[in-house]
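User: Fold this; tokens only.

Assistant: Input:
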Amino acid sequence: MTAGRTWRGGTRVAERAATPRWDRGWRQWGLALRKSPTGTAGVTLVLLVLLVAAAAPLLAPSSPDLQRHDIRLAPPVWCEGGRQGFLLGTDSLGRDVLSRVIYGARVSVLVGVTAVLVAGAIGVTTGLVAGYLGGTIWDTLLMRFVDSFMSVPNLLLTMLMIGVVGSGLGTIILVLGVTRWVTYSRVVRGEVLAVREREYVDAARALGLPPARIALRHILPNVRASIIVVATLNVANVILAESSLSFLGLGVPPQIVTWGTMLSDGRDYLATAWWMALFPGLAITFTVLGITFLGDWLRDVLDPRLRE
């Protein structure tokens, strides 16, 4: 490294050493994706869901709340008794099932992404602090708190918090985020305990850099691969949790279209109007599969053995 690329005191040397060596260009990512059928399927499904959610007003044939009582429980168009213009049929109030499935993607994406951001912010912060202070009383206290938090089942804790603070879209996002941060904390702490012993971290300490800067600039970038994988897989868990809560009547308000509420509406018509529950169930299944495939591919690509 030339002197022109070095800051005074050698700080630039330590900062460059902290840059992960597994960073890839778009071309390398594209080559890795083409070699993985699972990754290709995951990316395709996730992009499809995101496209449907973003373009819901353009893709939906009608308003998801428009009621047509004269065509209640109409089957899909390819079945006997199906109506033209209602590809997936109608529900018990005459609402278009296809339009409601399309608009339901918006809530699933919104809840999944924002709840994961909340959980990640809490978990990464606690894991980074605990790992950097590993072996101290603060690390012990933080990890005992994490262990006690993990001893309570997520669904039970979620239902308890909703019962206390009430339901609502914002509440669901906050509750799902607050109850799902411990995985980030444990994973990040384990990674930080290994990274903090590397030479460039010792060099940063020798240069007198403050602990906060060392943790954020030198350690955190080297554990982000694990954070990305955990976050990706956690989106699928959050979507399933939101659907489960909506199915139980504890999720978002009924006037907001979600796949979980559609499943709840269709459970009383499984024998006579199977399409009411089948298509939102398939939407949840394919979305979760796509996110899981994407997470598995990212885990393989960002494996620590590939960083060198």
